[in-house]
User: What shape does this take?
Amino acid sequence: MGNRRWATADGQPQMGNRRWATADGQPQMGNRKGCPYTGLPDLDIHCNLYVENVEMTKLLTWKPDWQACRDNLVRWWNREGMGLYMEVLRDQPRAGIPSVDLPADLEYRWTNAEYRCSAAEAQMARVDFWAEAFPYFDTQIGPGSLGTFIGSRPGFAVDTVWYEPYITDPDQVQGISLTADRHWLDVHLGLIDEGMRRAGGRYLVGIPDLIENMDTLAALRGDANLLYDLVDRPDWIPARLEEINRIYFEIFDLMTARVSPDGDGNAFSAFHIWGPGKTAKIQCDISATLSPRMFRRFVQPYLRAQCEFLDFSLYHLDGTNAMQHVEPLLEIEPLNAIEWTPQAGRPGGGDPCWFDLYKRIRAGGKGVQAVGVQPEQVIPLVDAVGPHGVFILLADPVDQVTAEKLMRDLEPYRT
Assistant: This one.
């Protein structure tokens, strides 16, 4: 399935995989009808999805130009314009948003919904959101929490969450499914629900960084063990990946129905993306250990299925050891864009050494996201790669003087 363009009533070009309009002319995305999701009969969905926040994705008081931002993000997805994620430091935090104390208990710090939402609001209160930056509550509980719904146990650290493998003998595992104990799923839904309850039209609530594909199977099996499995029992792998995809699709629909009850698109926790449909970052970090031939066999088909499920997809390309997979990624027609993260010790995403990579991705018909870019690197990057289809994430919040200068310098590129 390829990417199809459409235009709304105001003539703005759009792109995604699935779209239709209801009798009243309102555009709809995905497969929502009646109760937002019925594919998981064993889960208590709770169809009360905070109707008071139905308009939350159209108007944001902490992002007054949100509609223009949305339009610009769609132009970036369509590779017809550029995006810039720039947070600007405020002289004073927003009124009425208290600071919060950092809890000592790491599990509480990651999983307590009231604390997480309060901490996110305190952080958002310190900055304004310029250009294509927007405020959202990041509901992630580490990179790869989908595995906790299947049987992996999380280990909480200060800056991340690790996941303990549970498949010790793959020959005894003939299927992967959701666990009967839905504790970690409930924790995630609790974060989303608290954010929706408190957002009040100020900010969005994002889909967490679930992660999927081979990376989730690696979390369940262990990286080294999975690499042996690719050689010793290659026929065991595809069925497990199909099962993980099925669970991913079900959970994504469940969460999307909560954060976007009007079907107006979603923010995703990783890499600051939003789209007017099912929107997510996808990845396969373990691919750094795979050849392109193995990538095409064990990774590419399941990534393609994810991209067909999603309306807007961004692949996270992580480190130079994964660069051999650029061509297999460009072969995935419904993939919209590729993000590049240089590994530690390498220059950031704005360094000229990566410009050829960005041009290669753009020439392959995909958008590009460059991360960790310094303000002074933005114009040289855009001059070298071109503005269309390029989304730049600044490394850190900037002061207002820097922000105003950068916006002036970018004006010719953003028209």
